[in-house]
Amino acid sequence: MEGTAPLTPYDPTSVARWVPEPDKRPGRTAFQRDRARVLHSAALRRLAGKTQVVTPGRTDQTWDASPRTRLTHSLECAQVGRELGEALGCDPDLVEAACLSHDLGHPPFGHNGEQALNEFAADCGGFEGNAQSLRLLTRIEPKRFTEERSVGLNLTRAALDAATKYPWPRGAHPADPDSPKFGVYEDDRPVFDWVREGAPAARTCFEAQVMDWSDDVAYSVHDVEDGLHAGHIDPACLLADPERRAVFEVAAARYAPADTDPGELAEALDRLLAQDWWPHGYDGTAIAQARLKDATSQLIGRFCLAAERATRAAYGGGRLTRYTAELVVPRATRMECAVLKAVADRYVMQRAEQERLRADQQVVVLELAEGLTRRAPYGLDPQFRALFDRAPDDRARKRVLVDQIASLTDASARSLHARLT
Fold it and tell me: According to the UniProt entry, which residue ranges have a biased composition of type Basic and acidic residues (predicted)?
C-alpha cells in the first residue's frame, strides 16, 4: 500500500510557523511537534467536560453506557483520520493534529451553546465553533508568545490549514451566502491570510477533507452506538415504514444533498440492515456489547475503505497531499452515513428530554453572557481579565467575553452562571 512508504517532509512553506522558533529537540518533524502541542493543550483536556450527544448519567437502562464526550470523540476521530490519511499518503501526524483540533472551539453545550453565543455576539462578528478553533490555536491557548501577545500554539501553516473546515469569513460561503458556517473572525484575518497564502480560494486542503470525513464517520457511527447503549434507539424501529419515513425526512432535511430522493436513503438503510454484523437487537449483555462494537468497527472500515478506494481510483497510487487531490467519497457511502446521522438525530437528539435540556442550556449561556457583560472583569479568568482590560473598545471587550464563555466546560458554565446570577 502506498501509505506504508517512507514519508518525505512537506515543502518549506507548509512547515513554516507564524512566529519562527527553533527546534527544542532535533529529529522530530514539524508535524510531530504540532500533534504534541494539541495533545498537551488545556483546550483539548476541557473537551472531556463537554457532552457529545448522550449526557453522562442520563440513561433509561441500568447498565453503564459510558457515553462519549467531545474529548473521546476527538480522539476517535484522530485515530480514524490518521489511518485513512496515511493510507492515502498524507503525513499521519499532520492529519491527527487536525482531527484533534477540529472541535477545540466548541463552547459548552456544543451546537446549542454555539447558537446562543452567536446570538449574543451578533454585533461583534458572531460566533462559529470552527472560527473559534482557529482563534484558539493562533491566539488564546497559552503556549508561545511575542512581546505584544500570545500566538497560541504557533502550529505550522499546513496544520492550521488542515484544521480549517470552512476557509472563508462570515457571509462568504462560496455556494450559500446565508450559511452560518465560516472559519475566521475579522480580527483574526492576518493569521488566516497567512495560513491560506497561495491556496485556492474557498477550497479546503486534502488533509482537511480527510479530517472532515473522519469526523463524519466517527460521530455518525458512534452516536448510534451511544444511542443503543443508552436505550434510546430500538433497532426494530428501522424495519417499520412510519419510523423509516421519519428517519428519511430528517436525513433529507439535515444530512443529505438537496437533490436526494427518499428512495436513495431507503436503499442505503437497507444495505446496512442486510449486513451480517448489523445489530438487529441490543440488551446490554456482554455478547450484545461485543456485537455492537464489531458493528461500529465494520461501519468505520466500510466508510473509510470506500473513500480510500474511490480516491485512489481517481488519483492513482502516489502521495496525496495539500492541493494535489480531492477526497472522493462515493455518493452511496454518503447516503449511508447520512442515514446513521438521522437515526441518532431522530431517536436521541429529538427526545422531549433533550428539547427541555437544550432550552435550559440556551438560558444558561445567554444569562451568563448578560451577567458577564454587567459585571466584567469580575467573573473572568485572569487570562481573559487581562485581555478585557487591554481591549480598545466595546466590540473587542465583548469578544473577550465570548472567548471566556467558549472556553468553559458544561459544568463550569453552570457554576459561573450560578455565581453571576
Answer: 20-29
Q: Please name which of 157, 167, 37 lies closest in space to residue 101, comparing C-alpha atoms.
A: 37
- pLDDT, tens digit only, all 421 positions of the chain: 333 334 445 787 899 999 998 888 888 999 999 999 999 999 999 999 987 665 554 545 545 557 788 999 999 999 999 999 999 999 999 999 999 999 999 999 988 899 999 999 999 999 999 999 999 999 999 888 777 778 899 999 999 999 999 999 999 999 888 899 999 999 999 999 999 999 999 999 999 999 999 999 999 999 999 889 888 889 998 998 899 999 999 999 999 988 899 999 999 999 999 999 999 989 889 999 999 999 999 999 999 999 999 999 999 999 999 999 999 999 999 999 999 999 999 998 888 777 888 888 999 999 999 999 999 999 999 999 999 999 999 999 999 999 999 999 999 999 999 999 8
Residue 89 falls in which region: left (phi positive, over 0), alpha (psi -120 to 50) or beta: left
**Which among 272, 247, 273, 271 is positioned nearest to 260, based on CA atoms?**
247
**Three-state secondary-structure class, residue 260:** coil
Q: Which residues face 51 on adjacent strands?
A: 69
How many other CB atoms sit within 10 Å of the CB of residue 20? 7
Contacts of 91 (CB under 8 A, 6+ apart): 7, 10, 29, 31, 85, 207, 321
Asked if 107 contacts 136 with a C-beta cutoff of 8 angstroms, the reply is no
Kindly give the residue spans of alpha helices, DSSP state H, lying in 90-205.
92-101, 110-120, 129-135, 157-162, 189-195
Q: Give the CA diameter of the chain.
A: 64
> Which residue, chain included where needed, has cell 427518499?
262
> d(Cα 222, Cα 297) in Å, to the nearest integer?
10
